[in-house]
Description:
Layout: H1 2-22, H2 43-46, H3 57-69, E1 74-80, H4 81-84, H5 93-100, E2 104-110, E3 116-123, H6 131-147, E4 151-155, H7 162-172, H8 198-203
Parallel strand pairs: 3-4
Antiparallel strand pairs: 1-2, 2-3
Helix pairs in contact: 3-7
Amino acid sequence: MDLILILVVAIVLVLGVVVWLTRQPKAGGGSGKRPKTVEALDTLMAWQPTPTRVLTGGEREAYVVLRRALPEHLILAQVPLARFLKVPTRHSYTEWLRRVGQICADIVICEPNSLAVAVVEIRSADGQESERAQKRQARMERVIKASGMPLHIWREGAIPDAEEARNAILQSLGLLTTQEGASQVSTRGASAPGRPGLDGAEQAEPPSSTWFDDLDSAPAPLSPPELPRRR
């Protein structure tokens, strides 16, 4: 009986030692808890946010010029492409966001009803952008071109004046003929041929700010294009 009791006590002691050893921190391991990852950080506490400028010097200059040149239009700055461009709903919006979601147009020119009609990009004066910037610019140019929207590229230090800017923008929109001068042009806007009027534009509402909240941000394949039906 005494021998059995001694064995039981010995086993309990051994198990207690094993449990105690497994809970001890390893050498150089600190408290033994897993270190906080970047994802676990509270960015409001770890990365103190501070206000900054929205526009560069060249973008501010271009914005002021366009406000003077096109007072009948709405001028917006740093607008994400996914905010003023749509793709057919049969395609993956997740993939669309992955491709263009982080790209912003420097300045977007809109009709009074907020329908985007033209884009102005401000590039460095020497044209020596980084390789990453060039790829972003090339992707933006392809997307804007595919949408049929005029894209104007201006260089810092060579921003046109209000009259030149007005002529260039309105000509690209088909609102200024060679017989019309900048001071004589009538803002036909929504009534211009081939462009949607106010009612049609109001129906083409932009994606809601919460439109993509529940979407998975992982890459998703695009649906194959629809083939024309045989008659």
